[in-house]
Each structure stands twice: as structure tokens, then as C-alpha cells.
Task: structure prediction
Amino acid sequence: MSGYTDEHARAGIQSPLPALEIWENQYPGYEIVIVYPEYTSVCPKTGLPDCATVTIKYVPDKTCVELKSLKMYLLAYRNLGIFYENAINRILDDVVAACHPLTATVIGEFTARGGMRSTITAKWPRK
Result:
């Protein structure tokens, strides 16, 4: 892995981001799907922008994520140096920590760069 360091690999995973707020769920047995087509971050090695559509799907238990706080949280990635895989897994971990859903999936569909597109899918509970 020429030129990539352990620092690059861990970049952004522990960076402070805005808190996700929650509200009390009133109904059982449904799925929430949130599509955010304007996700951006930067490559921790090159500093080039990464763009994606991020889809968050979850089945709430006792609480739901408040959407304005989610928007502010996702906007905070804009200047954060973080790899695709780490970003999607971190978003999953932060959503799960905030609202403790029954199940959750986060999908990042990253735009083409250098002729290649990447789709990253992270699921909870983790197997």
C-alpha cells in the first residue's frame, strides 16, 4: 500500500462531530429511510473531495433520530479527511449509539473517480 499510512487509515474515525438528537418513537414495527444525496468528505491522503448519496435505513425501537441534527451531523463531514469505508461505518455506529434501533443499514454510493465507483454497505447488528 504505497504511500498510505496507519494515520491515513484511521483518519476521521474519532474526530468530533455534532451530536445526533433523538425523540420518542410513538409506533412499533416500521422502517425509516433517509436519503442524503449531498454527502461530501475529503480523502485523508490526497485532500480530494469525495461525494456520495448516503442512505440510512433503520427500524426504530424507543427513539428516532431528529432530522435537523442528522443534517448538521452529515454536513460536518464536508471537510473531514476520512476513507469511504470508515465514513459509512462511523455513520452507522453513531446512529446506533444515538437511537438504539432494532436494525440499521447505511449505504454510501460514491460518485465515480478515476473510472471507478464504490458502494459501501454497513449493517447493524453486526455479524
About this structure: The helical segments are 6-10, 67-75, 84-99. The chain has a mean pLDDT of 96. The chain is about 25% helix and 40% strand.
